[in-house]
Design brief:
With 308 residues, this protein is an alpha+beta fold. It contains 7 helices and 9 strands. The protein has a 5-stranded mixed β-sheet with strand order 5-6-7-8-9, with helices on one face.
Length: 308
Amino acid sequence: SHSYDGHMFDANGNRREFPEGRYRADVLTDWAIEYLENRTNDRPFFLFISYIEPHHQNDHNCYEGPHGSKEKFANFHVPGDLEGTEGDWRENYPDYLGAINSLDMNLGRIRECLQRLGSLDNTLVVFTSDHGSHFRTRNSEYKRSCHDGCTHIPMVLCGPGFRGGVRYREMVSLLDLPTTLLAAAGDPRYREFRRRPLQELTQALDAEQPWPDDVYIQISESQCGRAIRTHRWKYSVRAPDVPRDALYAERYVEDFLYDLENDPHERNNLVADPNYRSVREELRERLLRNMREANEPPAEIIPCESVE
């Protein structure tokens, strides 16, 4: 499919075409609302809506917002991580913003539907993404790097246990969502997971230990890489001896180190700076611990000064 043409399949395998002139995100929302309005209310529901927007439309080699996006968002503010860089954000960013604006409006349509049906107050709504975009400023594509442009994604929760418009500074991950949803449903099996529910932040739910100060990142396809992000630091390694689509490696080498407090846009790679050797040593051990906890095969990380 594309932004204004294509089709999907319903639960019975029937093909449904996009109405002519209707933007893809609008169509998917139309069908989600159709489901909500026609479902029976005798049992709880779980609705997963996978918008393609604002993903790059690969076969058209561009981002595609609703018609008029280039004009509406022509005078955009340039984010700090893009300012002064190459890449293709100059021609694509207005459509990127247009697609995001469409998602914002369509999420509002779903919430309005839930309100109209009397279900909003007892429905947990989660909005998130699997990656962002650095617009070809970090590698030859749009994602698959350690940088915040593609790894620092939105995560907004609203509903039972998540009210009040509060922004938390703790490091959270998509891996926290399964436990969060189970806890919201009252299913005690969330305790069987290694990751903890986000209700521990909002309700002090069984918070027996401090919230972790790091998140673990796996990078694939562009490289076999691993990274860790804390409030202060970003530390990333890559595997030079395996194909870029390899799942694991026995040997990694240090690739990036950023001081996010003093360099929030990740412009100054400190990985080879000897003044930060102790920082790298600490982060190396934290990253290896995360790799072990993910049941990855044993591996070593070679310090950058040891690479010939």
